[in-house]
Description:
By secondary structure, the protein is an alpha+beta fold. It has one domain.
Amino acid sequence: MGKHHSTISQEVKRGTVRQIKQVVKSSSGKTYEYDQMSYSADAGQASYTTARTACGRPPKWHQLADFLDWADER
Length: 74
């Protein structure tokens, strides 16, 4: 694929979702649940985007809101 193996591994880990399938037996009426792990590119991208919003330094003006209010009053 031309990418480092850890990059591929991280993307697969981010995009792996658990899918639950319910099967109802008509004869007994019992419900059975089966889960299956599968890869979803959309889930991987959503996970990546969510994680990236938490990265980076917050803007300086967020910390200065009280100071700016005080300075505007003067």
